[in-house]
Amino acid sequence: MAAAGRLEDGSLDLTQSIEDDPLLDAPLLPHHALHAHFRPRFHPVPTVVIAHLLLLIHVVFVILAFLTGVFCSYPNPHEDKCPGNYTNPLKVQTVIILGKVILWILHVLLERYIQYHHSKVRNQGYNTIYRSTRHLKRLALMVHSTGNTALLLILCIQHSFPQPSDLYLDFILSVLALELICSLTCLLMYTVKIRKFNKAKPRPDVLEEEKIYAYPSSINSETGFSV
Asked: What does the pLDDT average to over 115-137?
């Protein structure tokens, strides 16, 4: 009887302590509040605008190079036929090459900028987008480096064989046009992929995998008896 009395007293104390606990009387947080609290904040990759700006600079440079080469250097690339000789004492061809070098430096800075932000994305747990753009983000710089090599080869041949001079300018403009097409394609593919990633605002890969394991897709299966 004494043991039963102690048991009843203990159960009464436990019940009283539960009823007096203020935390149990607090209202429960709604589901969306809990989801917003535990879901990590998404930070978009801010490289699309810079890539588009550099694309615009590249297009303007190639257009100006063609206009300058056609109207100022033909038929004699050794003379500046532009009004006012605005490239004096440099030749038009030299100005185009210098502009190409500046454009290549801008692409080097863009590649470093992209690499910095992609490293941050990888540290935040987005390994899929990092791996999918690992080579794509370097293609534009590789295209420009290949174009620089082609231009250097053209200038070396021109130095040894000055004639015909018009042909070398055609080669330079052709390299710039081909380089623009390839670089434009690479950067557009990259920006489209990053824009889709920023628009989707996915959770880190680890959380997405946990969601897949926690809520597997239901497979509809029908079970029957053959008659």
From this structure: 86
Q: What's the whole-number mean pLDDT along residues 62-71?
A: 86
Q: Which residue has the higher pLDDT, 206 or 203?
A: 203
Distance CA 196, CA 91 (A): 45
The pair of structure tokens assigned to 68 is 């300058």
Could you tell me the sign of the dihedral formed by the alpha carbons of 187, 189, 190, 196, in that order?
Answer: positive
Q: Which sign does the torsion angle of CA 97, 103, 105, 107 carry?
A: negative
The one-character DSSP state at 46 is T
pLDDT at 193 over 80: yes
- In angstroms, the CA 221 to CA 167 distance is 71
* Rg, C-alpha atoms of the chain: 33
CA distance 193 to 105: 24
The pLDDT of residue 189 is above 90: yes
Q: Tokens standing for 34? A: 């809990």
Distance, in Å, from the CA atom of 151 to the CA atom of 153, rounded to the nearest integer, reads 5
DSSP 3-state of 85 = helix
138 in Cβ contact with 101 (< 8 Å): no
pTM score, two decimals?
A: 0.70
CA 34/CA 42 separation, integer angstroms: 16
Instruction: Check pLDDT > 80 for residue 227.
Output: no
Nearest-CA neighbor of 49 among 179, 207, 183, 195? 195
